[in-house]
Amino acid sequence: MNNQQSNQYPHYQVIIVGGGQAGLSVSYYLQKLDISHIVFEKNRVAHSWRNDRWDSFCLVTPNWQCRLPDFPYQGDDPQGFMLKDEIVEFVEAFAEKINAPLNEGVAVTRVRRGKQGWLEVTTSVGEFTADHLVVATGGYDIPIVPDYAHSLPKHIAQVHSVNYRNPQQLPEGEVLVVGSGQSGVQIMEDLHLAGRKVHLAVGSAPRSPRLYRGRETTEWLYDLGFYNLTVDKHPLGDAVCHKTNHYLSGRSGGHEIDLRKFALQGVRLYGSMNSINGTMLEFKPDLTRNLDEADEVYVRIREEIDRYIAENNIDAPEEPAFEKLWEWKSESGPVRIDADAAGITSIVWAIGFRPDYSWIELPAFDGKGHPRFRRGVSNAEGLYFIGLPWLNTWGSGRFLGIAEDAQYLAGVIHDKLEAVQSQTCTSRRPAVA
Length: 433
What we know:
Auxin_biosynth/cation_transpt; five-stranded parallel sheet; FAD/NAD(P)-binding domain; globular; CHP04046_FMN-dependent; Putative flavoprotein involved in K+ transport; alpha/beta; 23 strands; monooxygenase activity; oxidoreductase
């Protein structure tokens, strides 16, 4: 710790907010650069993995992608998929190895620019100042539930995916899962395998193969360089940061998810949720489009792999052409059902989260509250972000890309501190007569 003159509060060169894998990775590189810092974690290390996931949760990316700085996956199943408790153990082991200056149970409630130019940081244990602050809290702060959900009668239970744990948690009866991103489809499958009758409101999320032409698809995509694709080179530009991830599963050794297959097994599919009025549920007439567009992405991924195999003369087994298992009859208008008549007694909302950066009082956000940055470096001097999707590459926000992002930010901070130190030394140097 470096207390500076005219500053009544403890001062650090860097304060890191968030003690998950992203914040700890930044700490690892700051320690190597001998930069004074402290990590504030509101709860415990790996809290979100431990407390905000359902019981059967597992990663959708294989274990070989679980890499933190100088801390690769060390188990005996690189092609497997870590379960929730194994993820917690992995992150905790990394925290123990690097021995970060971690303070658990400390909430950061306010960040603002001080009179001296430092960042003033208010926490649950007092005030601090810093030259730089790294936000490593993720972007999953506020569970999204639409306003119209309030009109649902109280006898129909509602739970957001962040609070879903297992099928036994929900009352007897049929369940509507709203949302077909990674959480939605995996919770749907969890309920379906438990013998529950499930209804699914299908959104616009894309899907991906799990295995293709003799290899796990993520291995092909890694060789193709997809995980190193930077946001500035993506055809969608910054808009890709807000796109939903492809859905598939790591459950039971990993498999792809074809919603048409689940429909044949009894899962009732609808389009996107549109509104609720009492027990009346209304869905948009977009199921056909959403299923088809998800399949189109699925096929494009296969075609990219086919092209790579052909261009590199790789000996790989052939696969039959894609065929739809089942064709949905096009809707002529909104679909309406009565929840009571359908036997639906609970709804699981799996439509995502909103970030909450209201505690940061700096001009660093767009009109929707999303941070503005390049490679995690904010336009607000001294402020940085890490652990977000597409921070720089498709691998950002995953275990696979955290080390590179953390090392880059630590280097930027180091260079800025060195520049300030050099300017200070120059200004104090006596003039030559």
